[in-house]
Amino acid sequence: MSSSNGMVEEGLLVPIEEYFNAAVNIGTQQKTKQMFKYVYKVRPDGLYLIDVHYTDKKIKDAAKLLTRYDPSKILAVSTRMYGQRPVAMFARVTGAKSITGRFIPGTLTNFDMSYYIEPDILIATDPFSDQNAVKEAKRIGIPIIALCDTNNDLADIDLVIPTNNKGKSALALVYYLLSKNLLRQKGIEKFDYKLSDFEYEDAMV
After folding, report:
1. How much is the pTM?
2. For the CA atoms of 88, 94, 99, 105, what is the dihedral angle to 10 degrees?
3. How far does the chain reach from its first CA to its final CA, in angstroms?
4. Torsion sign over Cα 135, 122, 149, 153
5. Architecture label for domain 16-189
6. pLDDT below 50 — which residues of the chain?
7. What is the pLDDT at residue 201?
8. Residues with Cβ within 8 Å of residue 57, at least 6 apart in sequence
9. 110: how many CB neighbours lie within 10 A of its CB?
10. Cα–Cα 20 to 30 A to 91, which of 68, 69, 112, 120?
């Protein structure tokens, strides 16, 4: 699977080693039936490993889908701590909206509340930890993109990005690439951000 010279494998957004170094391929010791097709190997310690070729392709697919929407109508959410900075940076770079930390019930469904918003598409960092946002997005009938680990249920997800959705390096890389590729899909080649801009820092807490 890996290349030996550090070159970008044909068609991939970054050298495959970058996905490995960020632990994008490291799943959990559990797998759902729906996620098994994205797994290429089980390690001796029981961890399922994700085929990052799928991750790469799905990042491109997600970016292409997102170009159909007004950026202000894209909502990215992360209850998971390590996903909060990547999500905030994705929103800053692309013009999307973000909700980090606790998702307040009714945000997408109760128009009488002051924090009510009307997105046209949702990006969930983890469909389990962000299940309240996923449920509300499903209820109002908008598409849902989700970063899914090997243990995630995909029942309500329209577009899966298979990845380690618990590691800070993996989340930073996926949102960095999603941001960069979304702008590129729109014909914007200039990208003045580094991967480190998307990485969670322990000093933040």
Report:
1. 0.92
2. -170
3. 37
4. positive
5. 3-Layer(aba) Sandwich (3.40)
6. 1-7, 203-205
7. 81
8. none
9. 12
10. 112
Side by side, the strands of the sheet bearing 144-148 are 97-100, 74-78, 121-124, 144-148, 159-162
Handedness of CA 138, 158, 171, 92 (dihedral sign): negative
Minimal CA–CA distance to 86: which of 6, 205, 194? 194
Burial class (CB in 10 A: 0-12, 13-18, 19+), 36: exposed
DSSP characters over 5-66 = S-PPPTT-SS-HHHHHHTTTTB--S---TTTGGGEEEE-TTS-EEE-HHHHHHHHHHHHHHH
**Pair type for strands 74-78 and 97-100:** parallel
Instruction: Determine the Cα angle at 146 with ends 145 and 148, to 5°.
Output: 150
3 state SS of 127 = coil
- At 107 the pLDDT is 97
Beta-bridge partner residues of 162: 148
Q: Residue 144 pairs with which residues in a beta bridge?
A: 122
The residue written with tokens 């994700």 in the block is 50
> Angle at CA 162, nearest 5°, toward 172 and 77?
50
CA atoms within 13 A on the CB side of 88: 13
Tell me what pLDDT residue 4 has: 38
